[in-house]
Fold:
Amino acid sequence: MTSSPLPHASSLPGFGTTGFVRGEPAAASSLTASQLTSLRGVADLLAHLRLTVLTGAGLSTDSGIPDYRGPNSVPRNPMTYQQFVGDDALRRRYWARNHIGWHHLRRAHPNDGHRALVRMEQRGLLTGLITQNVDRLHSSAGSTKVVDLHGTYDRVVCLSCRTLFSRQDIAGLLERLNPGYLERTGNAGDVAPDADADVDDTSDFMVAPCPVCGGMLKPDFVYFGENVPKDRVDRAYAMVDDAGALLVAGSSLTVMSGLRFVRHAAKQAKPVVIINRGATRGDDFASLKLELGVSESLAYLADALPGATTEEVGPARR
Ligand SMILES: [Zn+2]
Structure:
């Protein structure tokens, strides 16, 4: 996504009451007056606090990855772990759809929201990012303090010997086992955030065994019915413990794996801000809830938030 030319921020009316030394951020020009008022409220609440940001599928929709729980999306029933390991036909179908779908994730690019979070990290505003997305777009944008809560699409794990493989290497294996499948199936009509492509002809697809032990391979992300590894959860809790507030961006918090961090922050009496189109399961815990686009909101906040007091940002200029 390219950013359109914007008028100089200081030409915008109505600024100067919030006490920030900076001018109104450039992102403000794409926002309506009431959206700006809401975002200024968020900036005031979060001023001088270090943040943990929890992101979900709503952040990646501007990168062309649909959110299957968003207000306009078609409901899906993602496969459970028990179905994956227990049913050969379902596992074959899963791998066939993933074989198409992962290419789509690989071609996706970070958007303004991902880039805004990189700027926040560089300004010292973040204790870290917890993402429910498996698309790795935070890391490709340049964020370094990321907990990939639900794993990543670009790795595959053997359920027997636990060897990890790159998804690229397994793609080569699958292509040799299923010559011409990609070409025959063509472009997927729809790809979910977990690389599940909308493909129906999967009955003759050959699943690859583990190249090391012959065991069962699984994309290395957390399925429904599966627990997030404990060390990963602990790292995410530690980020929230170190933060002064929690900002949720683009998640409906439908699954407990994300909602628990909202509860954790609220229990510590830390402000919780939720930016998401549509209701979330965390709304009752939120100090502020904004029904706004995630990318433009984060772009605004990355510039509008004053520096955190607990960490100096850059060397002092004299
Ligand atoms: Zn193995």
